[in-house]
Every structure is written in C-alpha cells, then in structure tokens.
Amino acid sequence: MTQNLNQFKPTTEKGAxxxxxxxxxxxxxxxxxxxxxxxxxxxFAVKLVSITGSKNIIVDLATNATDKIFGFxxxxxxxxxxxxxxxxxxxxxxxxxxxxxxxxxxGGDSIEIVPTGNKVxxxxxxxxxxxxxxxxxxxxxxxxxxxKTL
Length: 150
What we know:
mainly beta, 0% helix, six-stranded antiparallel beta sheet
C-alpha cells in the first residue's frame, strides 16, 4: 500500500472491507492438501473443503466460476500471502469489500468471479457471488461489492 505525504485517508486497496461493521468474517484454515498459490491473496475467492474429523472451517482457492463460493479473503495489513494449513479470515455474505473488475460493470449488476485473474465481472454463466454497489468503467477498476454467497 503506497501512502503519500499529507494523505488524509488510506489508499483504496483490493480486498479492503468497507461500510462500517462487517459481521460475517470467519476464521478458516487453508486446506493442508492445497496446491493453490495464495500469494497476494487480497480478494481471492475461496470454497469450502470437506475434511473428515476437522474441527475447523477448511477452505481452498476457487478455481472455477461455477464453484460454490464461501467468501473472499480480505485485505490484511500484516500479510497477504499464505501457505497451505495457515489460518485466514474470510468475508462471507453481507460483507462489503473492494474487488477488482475484469471489465466494465454497472452498479446493481449481479457479479461472478474470474478465477484466473482473481477479478469479478457481470454474471453470465457463473455462480452469483454478490452485487456491485459502485460501477467500474474498465478492467482493473476497484469497486465495492456486497458479497452474497452460499
């Protein structure tokens, strides 16, 4: 995160939580058998993984737009890269988060993920993961998404 001299508020970053209280933040564990790369994980979509006997919520990186998305990894100021077995926070339904658009998006559009670029686009064939609260003019714009998962 780049800060400038005399900056009055933090720079908007991908994965940053927004709009006051976000109740649906869960402590989860990355699948110990995961082969996914959790480097620069702000805003990554995750899905639930079933591991027999586990007492933790186990998640792994969503790899397909039709996956049942559990939530998204929010911005953490201490680290944004994780390894398999690490504990992470995950924002789920009713959390508002900054996401990176993969194309132009109008406010109010239903949103799906693009797993290869870790971005969001207007929903066409994938699983709806939220609603755009603000609009994006082009690929790479940061927009507020109201997450609606599972």
